[in-house]
Predict the structure.
Amino acid sequence: MKNFVIAIDGPAGAGKSTIAKLVAERLGFLYIDTGAMYRALTLKALKKNLPLDDRKKLIEMAKNTDLKLIQKNKKLHVIVDGEDVSEEIRSEEVSRNTHYIASIPEIREILWDMQRKYRETHNIVMEGRDIGSKVFPDAQLKIYLDASVDERAKRRYLQLKEKGIDVDFEEIKKEVMERDKKDKNRKIAPLVKLPDAVYIDTTNMTIEEEVETIIKLYREREFKSG
Ligand code: DC
């Protein structure tokens, strides 16, 4: 029997990381943030000053990168060539530029292989954009986590404010819409609402409600497949 996969896809700012982490913790599953992998390669390319439109160089770089996700003390650490870049990959510069790496088929293939390997040894909660469509089309539970553009921009705005970063709400909203467009219109593995995914609109839900909804769905599926 294949290990259980809960695939959580959805647009930026829908709260996937928070929810995926909590669900994994409660069920004792491995939590994998695939966005962190695309971010990690982007950070490396930026640090090496590689031109982000030079696909050949980026593919070469990806092939020669030792990328690891390690869970330590309830935190997911992203290690690139031996260096912990967990914090650095969250910068605005990386967020803005990840679409270059994300649109290269050969690089997605490399990351998909890595992502699929986790299932060989663990039950997993994996979040991203293409988990249900490309990485694990046979995932036992697929979730599409959504929220309105305004709500996602508000969450992002408050997050940045909390960090002491002064930002303009309209500017943030524009960025959120821009990232949606890139995620949904990408030629390879765009973000899609799959017919077999459970759609959850989190606009008016609390974190606890979201986690409970997913765990309930898991119990139903586990019962059916077990
Ligand atoms: O989830 P995130 O915001 O950390 O993702 C960063 C970027 O990586 C985002 O622009 C979309 C891309 N991404 C992707 O193309 N496929 C995934 N499975 C996860 C993220």
